[in-house]
Structure formats: structure tokens, C-alpha cells
Amino acid sequence: MGILEILGLRGTSAPDRSSSAETAAVRKIAASLDRLPPEQARYIAAFAYVLGRVAHADLEITEDESREMERIVRDKGGLSEDQAVLVVQMAKTQALLFGGTENFLVTREFNEIADRDQKLSLLDCLFAVSSADGGVSTVETGVIRQIADELKLDHRDYVAVRSKYREYLDVLRREDGDTP
Predict the structure, then answer these.
(1) Angle of CA points 123, 129, 133, to nearest 5°
(2) C-alpha span between 110 and 122 (Å, rounded)
(3) Residue 3 confidence (pLDDT)
(4) Within 10 Å of residue 157's Cβ, how many Cβ atoms?
(5) How far apart are alpha carbons 114 and 81 in whole angstroms?
(6) Which domains, and CATH codes, for the chain?
(7) Roughly what angle, to the nearest 10 degrees, separates helices 116-131 and 38-55?
(8) Quick one: CA dihedral 31, 88, 46, 21, positive or negative?
(9) Dist CA 23 CA 169 (whole Å)
(10) How many angstroms from the chain centroid is the CA of residue 3?
(11) What is the structure's pLDDT at 170?
(12) Which residues pair with 169 in a beta bridge?
């Protein structure tokens, strides 16, 4: 048994990947949403994981970022407060534990199951989570840009969404906290 099997990242037999490459992180989060249709649970799980990826980009997930993630997951996923808290907690844990190996895989999975409007909505939510603590760091901006690329969004899409959060971008803020 290899390390990937021990960590639950690969089963002992070949995984069933009939529709797309479903990651272990998404499967674990989606399992907590067992009352939802499987495709909806999978979508919410991938969506929440990518939010957690950005929240953890600067190696710290603040309470404000967590609350914003919970609000977004609740509103976008049509979940109860308790479900949203559970999904976000699981997404953050999965991002912390498996981020290095799963980040690209989960984002690629989201890219496969989401349409263009859903991808743009996620991009907006990534900036909302990053700005929840009052600023979007250059590290967070870089990760969001990378995710936009992985979602195959155009640079102008990224710039259009980022411009809504201009006042929070650390790279554009002066020492006094105001934007130029």
C-alpha cells in the first residue's frame, strides 16, 4: 500500500473516472451533502474547496474569510447555515491537508462541471473571500489569477472582476490605506 492509498488519495483498485476526474477532496466534502443530488453536491464541494484554496493562499484563513465563505456557500448552494459551516470547515481542512496535490485537480474538476457564468461567479467570490479581511494580498491575487487560468477564463474576464475589488488590492494601496 502506497502513501496515496493511506491518505485516501487513491484507492487500492483503479478509481472509476467515467464522467471526469473526481478528486478525493471533492468526494469527502460532497459526501457530507448526501441529501442533495450528487451533481449539485459535487459542484458545491468543488466550489467550496476552491474558495478555501484562495483563503489559505497567504497561509492564514481569517475568521472574516471563513464567515464570508460560509455566507457564499450558503447563498450560492442553497444550504442551511449548519450545512454551509460543515462544508466550509471540510473544504478548509482539505485545502490545508492536500492543497499541494489537489488544488489544480479540484479546479480542473470545477472547470469541467461549471459553465462560463458559474466560473465568473466563482471568480467574483474568490475576490470577495480574499477581501473579507480588508485587503487582497499580492499572493491571493496571484492565486486567483492562476485559478482564472485553470478555469480557462480570459485575462479581460479576470481584470473585469478584479476591478470591482480595486480598493482592496494591497498592491494599489498606499501606506495610509487609501487607494491612489
Answers:
(1) 145
(2) 10
(3) 34
(4) 16
(5) 24
(6) 23-170 (1.10.3680.10)
(7) 40
(8) negative
(9) 32
(10) 25
(11) 87
(12) 136
**Residues with Cβ within 8 Å of residue 124, at least 6 apart in sequence:** 161, 164
Task: Identify the pLDDT of residue 21.
Answer: 47
The alpha helices in the chain, defined as continuous H runs, are: 3-6, 24-31, 38-55, 63-77, 81-113, 116-131, 138-150, 155-163
Cell of 2: 502506497
Query: Length of the chain in residues, anyone?
Result: 180
| Sign of the four-CA dihedral 71, 23, 122, 167 | positive
Contact (CB, 8 A) for 54 and 129: yes
pLDDT of residue 141: 96
Joined together, the cell numbers standing for residue 62 give: 481569517
Which of the residues in the chain have pLDDT under 70? 1-22, 32, 172-180
Q: Which residues contact 134 (CB under 8 A, 6 or more apart)?
A: 64, 168
Number of C-beta neighbours around residue 120 at 10 A = 18
Query: Which triple of cell numbers denotes residue 160?
Result: 473585469
Whether 105 contacts 51, CB under 8 Å: no
CB-based contact 140:54 (threshold 8 Å): yes
Please give the C-alpha separations between residue 166 and each of 78, 101, 116, 160, 171, in angstroms, as whole numbers: 29, 31, 23, 10, 9
